[in-house]
Amino acid sequence: MDFFYQYRKLLIGILLLCVGWWRFSPYSPRVVMPAYLNAGVDCSQFPPMAMGDEPLQTEVPTGMQPFVLPKVKLTPLAGFSMPARVLHRASYLYDEHASISTID
Question: What is the 3-state secondary structure (H, E, C) of the chain?
Answer without folding.
Answer: CHHHHHCHHHHHHHHHHHHHHHHHCCCCCCCCCCHHHHCCCCCCCCCCCCCCCCCEEECCCCCCCCEECCCCEECCCCEEECCCCCCCCCECCCCHHHHCCCEC
